[in-house]
Amino acid sequence: MTQPALSVASVSHDYTGKQALNNISFDIQPGQLLALLGPNGAGKSTLFALITRLLKTQNGKIEIFGESLQRSREKTLRNVGVVFQQSTLDLDLTVAQNLAYHAALHGISQRQAKKTIAQELERLDLPDCIDTKIRKLNGGHRRRVEIARALMHQPRLLLLDEATVGLDIDSRALLNQHVRSLCAERHMAVLWTTHLIEEIQPQDQLLLIDKGLSQAYGPCTTVLEQHRCDTLKQLFKQLTGAKQ
Ligand SMILES: Nc1ncnc2c1ncn2[C@@H]1O[C@H](COP(=O)(O)OP(=O)(O)OP(=O)(O)O)[C@@H](O)[C@H]1O
């Protein structure tokens, strides 16, 4: 095994008396997509906030490419692209302006930024939108711009928190497919947080959490076999009691 892109070991989290996460451990290797699945209130956002350092780690260890998140914050975050659940694009700036601003924050030269913006938009099938204000784009296109932004500094680990929320079925499928191809082509590690079973594929790694506890972890097909389930829907219901 190579060094994991992301390693989470025995992580727990308390919100003043309420335990949101209890002893969660998992790894993501370069080129792997791990689907973090769980019903509402399972602890997905808490875990995401710990990995992105929005919350401070209370218990356990989080490492990105072998570097402790607690000790080398800047170094580790340089390797990470993040797409949050809520859009953080400036609606009154154009696509290019939003991306260029992010590039500047990462110390990327204007020349390099221009080149990367063109490449990423081409890749996302958005080249005609470069001078369009975000406000004029539909939800699916805005999400694609957010992915392009997260990729501007060429991260090796991409973290997405419920990136498809609010999108129609076609846009959801397209986005999911796009992230999968990035994962394969760039050998990028991906954490895909979702509460939607249909966004998960048999070749994915799966971490199913419920009420802060890890209920199942491993290659999707292995997890199904271990729990004698034919479908993820069945597994989800068996382990969480929740319906999809
Ligand atoms: N700031 C907070 N203070 C107290 N409790 C919190 C706080 N944030 C979350 N919780 C609780 O922690 C648990 C996990 O919440 P979290 O938001 O991480 O779950 P989730 O899986 O992301 O759910 P959802 O899909 O609904 O966003 C829930 O019981 C929630 O009520």
Spell out the blueprint of helices and strands.
Layout: E1 6-15, E2 18-28, E3 33-37, H1 44-51, E4 59-64, E5 67-68, H2 73-77, E6 80-83, H3 95-105, H4 110-123, H5 139-151, E7 157-161, H6 169-186, E8 189-194, E9 205-210, E10 213-219, H7 220-226, H8 232-240
Helix pairs in contact: 3-4
Bound molecules: adenosine-5'-triphosphate.
Residues 15, 18, 20, 38, 40-46, 195 line the site of adenosine-5'-triphosphate.
Protein name: ABC transporter ATP-binding protein
Keywords: ATP-binding, Nodulation, Nucleotide-binding, Transport
Pfam families: ABC_tran (PF00005)
Structure description:
- Residues 6-236 form the ABC transporter domain.
- This is ABC transporter ATP-binding protein.
- Belongs to the ABC transporter superfamily.
- Helix 3 (95-105) crosses helix 4 (110-123).
- The longest helix has 18 residues, at 169-186.
- It contains 8 helices and 10 strands.
- Strand 7 (157-161), helix 6 and strand 8 form a beta-alpha-beta unit.
- The chain is α/β, with parallel strands linked by helices and 244 residues long.
- It binds adenosine-5'-triphosphate (ATP).
- Adenosine-5'-triphosphate is lined by residues 15, 18, 20, 38, 40-46, 195.
- Residues 15, 18, 20, 38, 40-46, 195 line the site of adenosine-5'-triphosphate (ATP).
